[in-house]
Amino acid sequence: MACKCGGYYYTLNAKASFDRDLAKTRKFLLRNVSVIRMFTSGFFRSKWRSIAGKRRILSMDAREKSRSTILESSKDKRVPIFVMMPVDIFTLDASGCPRIRKLKALTVSLKALKLAGVHGIGVEVWWGIVERCSPFDYDWSLYEELFKLISDSGLKLHVALSFHSNIHSTHGKGGVSLPLWILEIGDVNKDIYYRDQQGFSNNDYLTLGVDHVPLLSGRTALQCYEDFMLSFVNKFESFIGTVIEEISIGLGPSGELRYPAHPFGDGRWKFPGIGEFQCYDKYIFACRMEDLKMAACREGKPQWGDKGPQNAGCYNSLPSGVPFFEEGKESFLSDYGRFFLEWYSGRLICHADAILAKVAKILKKYQENEQTSVLLVAKIGGIYWWYQTLSHPAELTAGYYNTALRDGYDPVVSVLSRHGAALHIPCLEMMDSETPPTYLCSPEGLLKQMQSVSKKRIVNLIGRNTTERLDKTGLWKIRSNCYNPQAEVVRSFTYFRMNDSIFRVENWNNFVPFVRMMSTDL
C-alpha cells in the first residue's frame, strides 16, 4: 500500500556541500545544546523532500485567523487544569464486565478537586472497553455513568479516545487490553501488531501497516477508528463543546504518535536504551518494499528497499559503539541512513495525517459553531534521553527523524496545523539538572524545540507532566513552562494523574496553590 500523504525521495545533488558543512560543524555539535538549537531552527535543511511537502498546510487567511485566536487566548493568561483519571479507575466484576471502582470515593475526590479550582477531568475512553466483545457492538454505559458523575460535580472533560492497550504499562493493575475480538485475530495473525527485527511483537497497538488492509472482520484499522469516533460523537453529542472541551485522538502506543521502540513492561527495554526500529511485520514490510524499492530504484540503489538498518544495535544499547548512530559510512548520515529514516518517519506522519483527517471531518460541524466548539488534540512522546547527541538515537527509533542537523518535529506539527489540532507536549515538570548526565538527557531542550515549532506553525499547545511531581519545585517548573515568555501560553495543562498521593496533606498543600495560581489571571 503506497503512502498517499506526499511524495519523498533523497536527492543526491548537493550532497557534497552538505558533507562540507557537516565537517565544519561536527566538532561543535556533540553535547552542545545551544548549537543544536541553531540546526533545528533551520540553519541546516534536510536534503530529503518532506513527507508532507506537497500538502497545503493552511491558507494565509486561515493561519492569521488561527494566530489571532492563539494570541487572544494568551492574553487572558489562565491555564485550566485537567486531572487525568486514575489508571485503575475501571475493574472487572464477577461476570467479566468492566465497572467503575470505588464510586463513592471517586465522587468525594471529584468534589475536592472542583473546590481546589481544577477545571476538568481527563478520561481515557478505551476501545477495549466500549467495543470489547464483538465488532460494532458499542457499549457506552460505563462512560455515560462516569461523564454524568463528572458533569454533576461541575467539572469539564478532556476525552482521550484510546486505541491502545495499557496492560504492560500498568503491570496488570487495572489495565485495559485491545478489544477481545482484535486479540482473537492477533492470536492467529501476530502481524497485525508491530514487530522488531527479531520477530517479537506486543499487542499494545495495531501496526500502521494494517491502516488500509481489511483484516479486522472486514474492516481496515482506519475504518475501525473512524466507526468508533462516529459512535462516540453520536452518543455524546449533547456533551460536545459544553462539558467535553478537548478530544485527544490516539495515534499509537500510550496514545502517542510514535512506534513502540521502547516497550516497557515486557522486559525487552529499559531506560536509557536507544530502542529498536519497528518495521518488520509483514504488512509494514510490504509497504516498505513497495515504497522504498520504488524510490530506491529511482536513485539507482534497488538494494536499499530490501531491509532496515543492520547495524542499529538492540533495545538496551547505548549510542557509543553502534555504527548506525555514529558518523561512519554506514551511519544515519549516510545516503542510505537518510533515505531509510525519511521513509520510517514518513510512514508515521502518514498514519497521523489519515486519522486526523477523519476526526477533523467528524468534528467540523461542532467547531464551526462557537457554542459547541471543541479542541482536537494529538499527543506526542517525550523522548528526551540522548537528546544532546548528534544522532538523537532514541528519537530516531521512535519515528521522530530529529537530529542535531534536522528538525524532525516540524513535519509532524505541520500535519497537526493542517487539521487544526493542538499538540499535547510532555516534560513540563522536568529539569536537565535532575536527569543522569551520563545519558545526555535534555527534557528542557526537547520542550523548547516543540514550543518553537508550534509557534512557527501556529498550533495550540496542551501541556502535561511525564513524571509525578507534587513537590513545590516540580509544580513551579510546570507553571514557568506554561508561561514561558519565549512561547505562547499553553491552552491547558493535564496533570497525570489522580491517585492517593495527590490528596495527602503535604502534597495537597502544594497542589491547591498551584492550581489556583494557574487558574487566575497572571
Helix content: 25-40%
Second rung of CATH, namely the architecture: Alpha-Beta Barrel
Rg, Å, rounded:
22 Å
Q: Class, according to the CATH hierarchy?
A: Alpha Beta
Protein structure class: alpha/beta
Order of helix and strand elements from N to C terminus = HHHEEEHEHHEHEEHEEHHEHHEHEHEH
| Poorly predicted runs of 5 or more residues | 6-75
Family: Belongs to the glycosyl hydrolase 14 family.
Keywords: Carbohydrate metabolism, Glycosidase, Hydrolase, Polysaccharide degradation
Enzyme class: hydrolase
GO molecular function, one term: beta-amylase activity
List keywords for this structure.
two-stranded antiparallel ribbon; 15 helices; 13 strands; alpha/beta; 8-stranded parallel barrel; TIM Barrel; 522 residues; single chain
What would you note in describing this structure?
It is globular and about 65 Å long. The protein is α/β, with parallel strands linked by helices. It has helices at residues 15-29, 33-43, 60-76, 103-116, 127-130, 141-152, 180-188, 221-235, 282-298, 335-367, 393-398, 410-418, 443-456, 472-482, 505-518; strands at 81-84, 90-92, 98-100, 120-126, 156-162, 193-195, 201-206, 244-249, 256-257, 375-380, 422-425, 461-464, 492-495. It has a single domain, classed as Glycosidases (TIM Barrel). The strands form three sheets. An eight-stranded parallel beta barrel has the order 1-4-5-8-10-11-12-13, surrounded by four helices. The longest helix has 33 residues, at 335-367. It catalyses: Hydrolysis of (1->4)-alpha-D-glucosidic linkages in polysaccharides so as to remove successive maltose units from the non-reducing ends of the chains. Belongs to the glycosyl hydrolase 14 family. It is an enzyme of class 3 (hydrolase). Its EC number is 3.2.1.2.
